[in-house]
Design brief:
It comes from Nibea albiflora (Yellow drum). This protein is α/β, with parallel strands linked by helices. The protein is built from 25 helices and 15 strands. The longest helix is centred in the middle third of the chain and has 34 residues.
Length: about 675
């Protein structure tokens, strides 16, 4: 399996110009193999006994229906249609026949075995890091295994409770006491010890972490699965069915769903909660806002010293005179993604004025969100891993300028630019970069009072992101032969999966420690699938709570189907993609939505791509429940009919896997 995975990796990372139009993970609509299978199906019995055993006479019963089921005759066959409290009657699409959906029974059972193992792999790694895995999928997995589902086994991220009225979000007097533990890095992973003596003997505390070799085995299995012919064919057909089923559902129930929404008073798209979960702090304002702020600051602070140039203090007026003397020089200097004096002055937390302007702009954006009342955002701030003081400086900026808003939570993005730091000799090896990123957070968790600013800042951080250009291939395949981070001392950048594994592994251990202290935990939410190899999406399937972009899911029906089954949230940014990787009309957002993947619209960088934002949140007190039970239409303005359809469709697909494994 490892050899096969290496062959797949080599195929995926060959030169872009010679790569086949159809990926080895994809299935063409006119694929000759499908025609061959069809001919085989027509001329053989295809194990009639198996088909007879799997013959279905009714649709599945949804496991969490809140009321007794009713029956309706359909050509002398009964179809169970679950009813829910407060869900109007609607037209259901029922498929009567066998489970195999046009593939041979052997291929059907083979596909179900592979998909089942893939689901258990994700469930294992989500539980380890206190990240989300759908309750419904867990129920089916326990049913397949013949075990009883226990709700208490489900885990959820822990978030900081918003401060009550009059409570200071920067208060430090209630910070937990020092545990006296010692944290050290070994083989790219932070371990926690009772004391220095235990650290010297490498006797860490029992904080579970992923097993390196097991992770590699699981990854190789998934690489083989997404390239497996029968599984690709099966998933391709299921996804086509999901698309068609939604179109039929919409045709039959559009008016009923609209009636539900019209009968819901005082709620529409404008006044339901919307969260922009993918937005970078350095571009969270739009162009007009930034220009207005620059002009205002120039009028007010023209004589203020705002920059230091070769040891000489430079005023605002002098800086602008230098910048605007020549238009070509201005173009070179004022580049939102380049190193310029103006960018440093207005969009950085570290500069001559200690990030004052950047803090002011963000607080103005937050004020606009508060005025709008129904809009929220999670801006991303960068930690590079270049030196261990970055966290202290960033949290000091946050606390000094009191950059807090009830409408903002914060994400930490880690750019994958080790090669640049190593080339400039900022870090001796990749392990040092990981240590600079994670060790300060472990130390602030063990002894919050040693760094109160960082401890306060971490309360308002919800997760970590991994960012950079995914189209840059490193040529390195993450495997058991890969050097440990302390051994990776070359200038070359590690692979995407290498970064993802070590970030996830440290976050998992950190979450174990923070949860044991009653602190908030962090989710792992990388940029993934915007470009580059499909295997990036595979790594995130194993490790990420949710992802940003996900465009390349259209290249792999198996991964796309797995993302559907596990309901992994995907924050998509069609306007950003239109400028960088994929033109707007070809964006798969609508296609993913119709198939039932969990997608949301996000801005990415409003300063460059902003038009609007959307993500329904604040679903009511039962939001953790799945299906229509967890939906409060009074808050979400999402029809209960649509929620019931989505839930029943997901249960139908999970039940197929359960039926395919009955012979086991």
């Amino acid at each position: 399996m490892r050899a096969f995975a290496e062959e797949v990796f080599a195929s995926e990372t060959k030169d872009e110009n010679v790569r086949d139009e159809i990926s080895m993970f994809d299935v063409a609509d006119d694929c000759p193999i499908l025609h061959t299978e069809m001919a085989h199906h027509l001329h053989t019995e295809d194990d009639a006994e198996k088909r007879k055993r799997h013959q279905r006479c009714r649709t599945i019963t949804v496991p969490v229906a809140t009321a007794k089921a009713t029956t309706a005759p359909v050509v002398s066959v009964e179809v169970d249609t679950p009813t829910y409290l407060e869900v109007p009657d609607f037209q259901r699409v029922a498929i009567i026949g066998d489970y195999a959906s046009g593939v041979t029974m052997d291929d059907f059972e083979l596909s179900c075995k592979g998909l089942y193992r893939a689901l258990t792999i994700r469930e294992k790694y989500m539980r380890l890091a206190y990240q989300r895995f759908p309750r419904t999928a867990s129920q089916y997995l326990r049913d397949i295994e013949g075990e009883v589902f226990k709700p208490e086994d489900q885990v959820q991220p822990v978030f900081t409770t918003p401060p009550s009225n009059g409570e200071d979000p920067f208060e430090t007097k209630d910070l937990p006491k020092n545990l006296g533990y010692v944290a050290r890095m070994k083989d790219g992973l932070i371990y926690v010890y009772n004391d220095a003596a235990a650290a010297d003997k490498h006797q860490p505390k029992d904080l579970p972490s992923p097993d390196y070799n097991t992770f590699i085995d699981d990854m190789n299995f998934l690489i083989a699965l997404i390239a497996q012919g029968p599984t690709k064919t099966y998933c391709h057909r299921r996804l086509k069915f999901l698309m068609s089923k939604f179109n039929v559902h919409e045709m039959l129930n559009e008016m009923e769903e609209m009636k539900e929404l019209k009968m819901n008073p005082h709620r529409d798209f404008y006044n339901c909660r919307k969260v922009d979960t993918h937005i970078h702090a350095a571009a969270c304002m739009n162009q007009k806002h930034l220009l207005r702020f620059i002009k205002k600051s120039y009028r007010v602070d023209a004589e203020r010293v705002v920059h230091s140039l070769q040891g000489r203090e430079v005023t605002m007026k002098e800086l602008f005179e230098q910048t605007f003397q020549r238009f070509d020089k201005f173009n070179a200097k004022y580049n939102p993604v380049g190193a310029s004096e103006l960018r440093d002055l207005y969009l950085k937390t570290e500069n001559h004025i200690n990030g004052e302007y950047f803090a002011t702009i963000i607080k103005e954006v937050a004020s606009d969100l508060e005025d709008a009342k129904y809009q929220y955002a999670e801006p991303r701030l960068s930690i590079y891993g270049c030196n261990p003081n970055e966290w202290t400086k960033l949290s000091g900026w946050f606390v000094k300028h009191r950059v807090y808003s009830p409408n903002l939570k914060w994400m930490i993005q880690v750019p994958r630019i080790y090669d640049i730091f190593r080339g400039r000799n900022f870090v001796p090896h990749f392990g040092k970069m990981l240590e600079n990123i994670f060790l300060p957070v472990f130390q602030a968790t063990i002894d919050p009072q040693s760094n109160p600013d960082l401890s306060i800042f971490l309360k308002h951080v919800t997760g970590f992101d991994s960012v950079d250009d995914e189209s840059k291939h490193s040529g390195h395949m993450f495997s058991t032969k890969s050097p440990k981070p302390e051994e990776w001392d070359i200038v070359k950048n590690p692979s995407y999966t290498y970064y993802i594994y070590y970030m996830y592994a440290n976050i998992a251990v950190l979450n174990q420690l923070r949860r044991s202290r009653g602190m908030n935990t962090f989710t792992f939410r990388p940029h993934c699938g915007e470009a580059g190899a499909v295997t990036h999406l595979l790594a995130s399937f194993m490790t990420a709570d949710n992802i940003s972009h996900g465009l390349n899911l259209k290249k792999s029906p198996v991964l796309q189907y797995l993302y559907f089954l596990t309901q992994i949230p995907i924050a998509m940014s069609p306007l950003s993609n239109n400028s960088l990787f994929l033109e707007y009309a070809k964006n798969p957002l609508l296609e993913f939505h119709k198939k039932g993947l969990v997608v949301s619209l996000s801005t990415d960088d409003p300063m460059q791509f902003h038009y609007t934002k959307e993500k329904s949140h604040f679903l009511g007190q039962d939001y953790l429940k799945e299906g229509p039970e967890g939906n409060d239409i009074r808050k979400t303005n999402v029809a209960q009919i649509r929620m019931a359809y989505r839930f029943e469709t997901l249960c139908y697909e999970l039940n197929l896997i359960k039926e395919g494994l009955k012979s086991e």
